[in-house]
Design a protein that fits this description.
Blueprint (H helix, E strand, L loop, with lengths): L4 E3 L4 H9 L4 E3 L14 H21 L8 E10 L2 E3 L5 H11 L3 E12 L2 E13 L4 H10 L19 E5 L2 H5 L3 H10 L15
Parallel strand pairs: 1-2, 1-3
Antiparallel strand pairs: 3-4, 3-5, 5-6, 6-7
Length: 204
């Protein structure tokens, strides 16, 4: 890696994932309206929000610095059936989301965006999670922990919520909030890479 990237997120989970793979970064958290536009599909939604977060962070940095580092941003949603589930705004909404996910499979969609001097890249990664059937008292007790709040779909697969998950298909790190394989691919294509992520001699 040459230099540092800016992570446009205050998420402790995304920070931990970047540290896990040794990417040096600093944080520029952004506050953004994450409302779904009428008729917006999941993949375009997460890519739009990830790009918006990255652009917002870059603009904020430009106000205070002459040089702007590459900016990485991400957005995660849960899709159950045709319904997009963001972060619950209340206990009753968290209970409703968890009840909807109980005993069913759903998709976790994470968009990532990287802004550099070389241009803009964005991708969306889809994973499938299958929940066990949850009793109402389990859902209530889980909400009592406070973990569902601030999490798309009202659960954290890296926390207590893992006890509800029977199967996953796809990117575990993408479900947590930052798909590491795809993130490294964006960094590699932008020249922000060191030998540990190099795939010389391997298929891209």
């Amino acid at each position: 890696m040459t230099g540092c990237i800016c992570l446009a997120s205050a998420s402790p989970r995304r920070k931990a994932l970047l540290r896990q793979i040794g990417v040096p970064f600093w944080v520029q958290a952004v506050d953004l309206d994450e409302s779904v536009q009428p008729g917006e599909a999941p993949l375009p939604l997460v890519k739009r929000l990830a790009l918006a977060k990255a652009h917002t962070a870059r603009n904020e940095i430009r106000e205070n610095a002459s040089e702007v580092a590459p900016v990485l941003a991400a957005d995660t949603i849960v899709v159950a059936g045709q319904k997009i589930l963001g972060k619950p705004r209340s206990r009753s909404e968290a209970i409703s989301m968890l009840t909807r996910l109980s005993g069913c499979s759903h998709q976790v969609v994470t968009g990532i965006a990287l802004l550099t001097d070389r241009g803009t890249q964005a991708e969306a990664v889809v994973s499938t999670v299958t929940f066990a059937t949850l009793a109402s008292h389990q859902i209530e007790a889980y909400c009592d922990t406070g973990e569902p709040f601030g999490k798309a779909g009202a659960y954290a697969i890296q926390g207590i919520g893992a006890s509800f998950v029977r199967y996953i298909s796809g990117s575990y790190s993408g479900i947590v909030g930052l798909p590491l394989y795809e993130t490294c691919s964006l960094l590699r294509r932008s020249g922000l890479i060191c030998s540990v992520w190099s795939q010389e001699g391997q298929d891209e």
